[in-house]
Design a protein that fits this description.
It contains six helices and eleven strands. It is an alpha+beta fold. Helix 2 packs antiparallel against helix 3 and helix 4 runs antiparallel to helix 5. The longest helix has 22 residues.
Length: 251
């Protein structure tokens, strides 16, 4: 997508668009040079502070994904986007910088990055690599709400890891949408996953939130990843959620 190309995607207020990219498949030197040209000075410094080449590469693709995704919906070149961070570190486009009041959230895991974008709604996305090490039951016992941990214990062993990452990504998508990170204790809210794929959330009274205002969805973008998105839809009908794969600046 050229720097001066006008926006070519339409994002309605009742939609959520999810864009994913696979860093390991993006190796062309010309593309990587173009991604580096999109970085702000702060973004470049953050990337170069990372210790491992794989992490630096993933961060570079992530920055390119965010900037080119936002540029699809507004007549602002990818390099020209300006962000501000809230008190907990979550970035958002500077108000008034573009036409529509776009909101986005970014997540990355080994082998995949994801960017969720919507218009003027709290939005959170989380993607996880299911091959990472760790005992799902032990982690759930320590961090999850009691009913979530009980459900995980009851799962057949062969399904337990997938179930764990469903819970984990849903919980991460919520706290990221709220923009408060782990200041919201994971044990203070819980998800209920029904056999018919309905996703329900419940909050302890300390959370001070209304489950009727939230919509969540789960995806398997690859055989090795689980992804969840959470969006504050209000009291209206469910939003339309669309997932698309891309190579920034090529598609």
């Amino acid at each position: 997508m050229a720097e001066n190309e006008r926006c070519r995607e339409r994002l309605k207020r009742d939609e959520v668009h999810l864009w994913t990219a696979s860093p390991e498949e993006i190796t062309a030197r010309a593309l990587l040079d173009a991604y580096e040209a999109l970085e702000s000075e702060d973004e470049r410094e953050r990337r170069l502070r990372l210790r491992f080449d794989r992490d630096r590469h993933e961060r570079l693709v992530s920055v390119a994904l965010v900037r080119t995704t936002l540029a699809r919906y507004a007549n602002v070149a990818p390099r020209a986007w300006i962000f501000e961070r809230n008190e907990h570190g979550r970035p958002d486009p500077v108000p008034g910088h573009a036409g529509p009041p776009l909101r986005f959230n970014l997540s990355h895991a080994r082998g995949l990055v994801a960017c969720a974008v919507t218009v003027d709604r709290d939005i959170g996305v989380d993607v996880e690599y299911i091959g990472r090490r760790g005992d799902p039951v032990a982690i759930a016992d320590r961090y999850f709400a009691p009913d979530e941990a009980r459900d995980l214990h009851a799962c057949p062993v062969e399904r337990r890891r997938d179930r764990f990452f469903q819970y984990w990504t849903l919980k991460e998508s919520y706290i990221k949408a709220r923009g408060m990170g782990l200041r919201i204790p994971l044990r203070r809210f819980s998800f209920h996953l029904d056999a018919d794929q309905e996703i329900r959330v419940a909050f302890d009274v300390e959370i001070e939130d209304d489950p009727r205002e939230w919509q969540f969805a789960l995806f398997r973008p690859t055989a090795s990843h689980v992804m969840a998105v959470g969006v504050r839809r209000g009291r209206g009908p469910d939003l339309s959620v669309r997932v698309r794969q891309t190579v920034p600046l090529r598609d």
